[in-house]
Amino acid sequence: MSDALLAGWGRTSPSRARVLRPGSVAELAAAVQAAGGRGVIARGLGRSYGDPAQNGGGVVVDLTRLRKFELTGERIVAEGGASLGELIRALVPRGRFLPVVPGTRHVTVGGAVAADVHGKNHPADGSFAAHVEEFDLLTADGSVRTVRPGDQAFHATTGGMGLTGVVTRAVLRPIPIPSPLLRVETRRCRDLDDVLTRLSGSTARYAVAWLDCLSERGRGIVDEATHTEGPAATAALKGPLLSVPPHIPGGLLNRHTATLFNHLWYCKAPRTSVRSMPLGAYFHPLDRIRDWNRIYGPPGFVQYQFAVPYGEGLKNVVRRIGRSGVPSFLAVLKRLGPAGEGLLSFPIEGWTLALDFPATAPGLPELLDACDQAVIDAGGRVYLAKDARLAPESLPVMYPGLARFREIRAQLDPAGVFQSDLARRLRL
Amino acid sequence: MNNAFRDPQSLLIVGGTSDIALATARLLVRRRARRVVLAARPSEALTRAADGLRGLGAAVETVAFEATAVGDHEKTFGEVFAEGDIDVVLVACGVLGTNALDPVKAAEIASVTYVGAMSATLACANALREQGHGTLVVLSSVAAERPRRANFVYASAKAGLDSFAQGLSDVLHGSGVQVLVVRPGFVHTKMTKGLPPAPFASTPDAVAVAIHAGLRSQAGTIWVPGVLRLVMAVLRRLPRAIFRRLPG
């Protein structure tokens, strides 16, 4: 047990908490029951960008010691603290892969359930929860219950940001893959319409676009990928290439460097190409740079990810950001399929765009508030796993399932034992 | 909770009728502040201040606070924090007083501006430490850096408070609680009404904007206007024989 200053991946609003690292579910249950007035929240690998895995003045249970997993036939049974990267490493040599992987593999199973993460294949395969057969939920009274799709607790917990309890074990269904390789088709698109047409027409299982929101027309690069045959010996995952040193000053990433970087990224991409790529290189390019979040320096950064139904909403927000002059690095655009059943799950059918901004960029807070309004007007929402600055009033408008979520949470945790900085900030 | 941009959702003002503090509150309420607690001696001015902030949409509470009743501070602020987290505490209690060489008056100035403010700041610092996050904004003055004849008693009290706040900032390092020391020059407020303005005079709104920017950038010390940082760096080093001859 120790006190620590914890922040999210964006490093913006740290708070101090008592951190416990239980080595068993019994220890975890004891920690939850002894949490005290400021409550407890589970933390995995700390990849949420904002404040959902911190609990100022309270207890944070670090789940990374509960990381055992086994592959049994067509299922994976994993403890809540097992990382998706470890699962992938074990699955790939057996010709299997996770059905949904987010933009980093350094995410725990519990975190993936709590944020109901999605990947570049949401239209085809849905979000993480769609592939969870059941999970064990440790609730506020210290008891563990097994929860399945259709249960109230299931749909409140998937996307519920850890506020219904701790996911101690989950059963997942992997997918078969022919090899650790992907056939990746890359194409440069000169403007936003071109990008959207390309993504909309894509028949590949995975598709993503990198947008340059600082360019006048919103040019971008579209990467489509499908699993393909290849030599089985190829390493699917490589370790980090570089590591970012700890003491980078703030302010290096500004409008000028962002424009230059985005330009180089665009120009380095082939006009059009088809090649084979290991899984890791396609799904998790940023995992090759250890601690990449440090490049923003001590002030940190904010990732703004929103989803809007098809229509003009996306362009409205992109235009607003482009006009503002606030520097944004490569933005990631994906399509989302129909929403799942998670009450606070992020994906809704339409577009989702994620942008990184230096936290101290002038005008950024006001810009993002204006973007919230444009997103609300379009019937969309922002992603809680990324959020660090939403106004609490916006939350019920963005998430109509919030009222139902609160009812179920009140039943599961009447005393409000599960608390986080995010929950306090958004009055969840 | 403070968000990523350090826009607080809840604000406690110690010395709740201060013009600078209220200008800051108005600005923060326009951003994210929804709960504002004004701690001050009950008065009509306090009621008006609370109503003004309610008009902007904030939920405002008033708490009776007497700077010199240091024995009550822990209890008073303990109750405020028990109602919910406070993200920013703005300590703005002070008396400028007159410049008469009256020992009793001087002691009064010091007991509000230094002793009372220090005790209130400590009571709040402990509560903030318990909640694991938050920012203490301590209103100091450029006078803390070098007293002028016109305000030396007040200046000495602010010097004490400024020094205390710097030390506290170091003590709180790593606790999740940050300290922002604000050193305005001459500000046109009810406290300075009728006094001849010094050079680089500013307004409560200008100080509020600077405090907001200081919160955002997580600064440790700010001067308002910013140029005073340089001006004071020079003035501090002037030989006393020369400094004494400066106007004011």
Automatic annotation (TrEMBL), chain A:
Domain FAD-binding PCMH-type positions: 12-177
Superkingdom to which the source organism belongs: Bacteria
This protein's UniProt keywords: Oxidoreductase
InterPro entries in alphabetical order: ALO_C (IPR007173), FAD-bd_PCMH (IPR016166), FAD-bd_PCMH-like_sf (IPR036318), FAD-bd_PCMH_sub1 (IPR016167), FAD-bd_PCMH_sub2 (IPR016169), FAD_lactone_oxidase-like (IPR010031), Oxid_FAD_bind_N (IPR006094), Vanillyl_alc_oxidase_C-sub2 (IPR016171)
One GO term describing the cellular component: membrane
Molecular function GO labels: D-arabinono-1,4-lactone oxidase activity; FAD binding; L-gulono-1,4-lactone dehydrogenase activity
Keyword RNA-binding: no
This protein's name: Oxidoreductase
UniProt source species: Acrocarpospora corrugata
Organismal lineage: Bacteria, Bacillati, Actinomycetota, Actinomycetes, Streptosporangiales
UniProtKB/TrEMBL annotation, chain B:
Pfam families: adh_short
GO molecular function: oxidoreductase activity
InterPro entries: KR_dom, NAD(P)-bd_dom_sf, Sc_DH/Rdtase_CS, SDR_fam
Record keywords: Oxidoreductase
Ketoreductase domain sequence ranges: 9-189
PANTHER family cross-referenced by the UniProt entry: 5-KETO-D-GLUCONATE 5-REDUCTASE (PTHR43669), DECAPRENYLPHOSPHORYL-2-KETO-BETA-D-ERYTHRO-PENTOSE REDUCTASE (PTHR43669:SF6)
Family listed: Belongs to the short-chain dehydrogenases/reductases (SDR) family.
Name the record gives this protein: Short-chain dehydrogenase
Higher taxonomy: Bacteria, Bacillati, Actinomycetota, Actinomycetes, Streptosporangiales
